[in-house]
Amino acid sequence: MPYETIIYEVAEQILTITLNRPEKLNAFNATMQREMIQAFDAADRDDDIRAIIVTGAGRAFCAGADLSSGADTFDRDVKRGAIRRLPDGRVDYSDPNARDGGGQVTLRIFECLKPVIAAVNGPAVGIGVTMQLAMDIRIASENARFGLVFSQRGIVPEAASSWFLPRIVGVSQALEWCYTGRVFPAQEALAGRLVSKVVPPDELLPTARNLAREIATKTAPVRQPGSSPMGAAGFATRDAGVTPLPVPSATGLANSG
Questions:
Q1: Taking the C-alpha atoms of 134, 138, 142 and 146 in order, what is their torsion angle to the nearest 10 degrees?
Q2: Is residue 88 in a domain?
Q3: How far apart are CA 36 and CA 39, in angstroms?
Q4: What total number of domains does the chain contain?
Q5: I want to staple 64 with a disulfide (CB 3.0 to 4.6 A). Which of 34, 104, 126, 254 is the partner?
Q6: What is the phi-psi region of residue 104: left when phi exceeds 0, alpha when psi lies from -120 to 50, beta otherwise?
Q7: Is there a contact between 207 and 139 (Cβ–Cβ < 8 Å)?
Q8: Rounded to an integer, what is the distance from CA 81 to the centroid of its chain?
């Protein structure tokens, strides 16, 4: 399938999805949303794919939402039409127009049957960070920068990030990054446990590929029916004798952040 905003490449049983709008710092738009979901759908159908790497073209991973439409960027009524409401006036969250686009991508990643590695090559802001939270492993280049900048835009954290982030880095660290909205370097992301390692820029993709190759060659190609993947925060499964944490639903936290 030809893609407009991503590159889909499979080699050695490893799929590399490259966000490919380098002239826009890989800013996230509706086309990228649709194509990323299609790419993960295709990956789950392909039994030859054993691991997935997500990275960015050029000097950025993803600069967040494409703001070229100005204030209308976050106006759902303008972009998608009016949201259906229940008789009592509450939003009907079964209406597809009510869904958070970034949340749809994040939950699709979370539900992916294959291990997903983020290879964060440069700045990652907004959805550029929150999409990573559902990925299993995050590796950062020394050039990477991260920003949960929603408080500076007057909007709530999206893409179910208020569910994922504290489970990865802890409540206190999550609140610090969200309250301040500041952009922080890769070493701070490492110290805060957002990423597992930081490597020189020219070692980023080789490191991610070596890890993906190890997963591809040493992991059984099936998992137990009914078992949940560990997901973004090491969620316990019933196999471990521990009650699993509830996961975000497609009609719930994806709408509210």
A1: 20
A2: no
A3: 5
A4: 1
A5: 126
A6: alpha
A7: yes
A8: 26
Q: How many Å apart are CA 69 and CA 49, to the nearest integer?
A: 37
CA-CA distance, 257 to 249, in Å (whole number)? Answer: 11
Helices 101-110 and 30-45 cross at an angle (nearest 10°) of 20
> Is 195 contained in some domain?
yes
Instruction: Enumerate the H helices of the chain as residue ranges.
Output: 30-45, 76-80, 101-110, 127-130, 150-153, 161-169, 171-180, 186-191, 204-218, 253-256
* 5 CB burial (10 A radius; 0-12, 13-18, 19+): buried
pTM score: 0.81
Q: Determine, yes or no, domain membership for 224.
A: yes
Assess if residue 82 is contained within a domain.
no
Instruction: Write out pLDDT tens, residues 53-78.
Output: 999 999 999 999 877 765 555 555 55
- Give the Cβ contact number of residue 2 at 10 Å: 5
In single-letter form, the type of residue at position 215 comes to I
Domain around 105: 6-70+96-256
- Give residue for tokens 């159908």: 45
Contact at 8 Å (CB) between 33 and 105?
yes
Residue 107 is part of a domain; what is its CATH number? 3.90.226.10
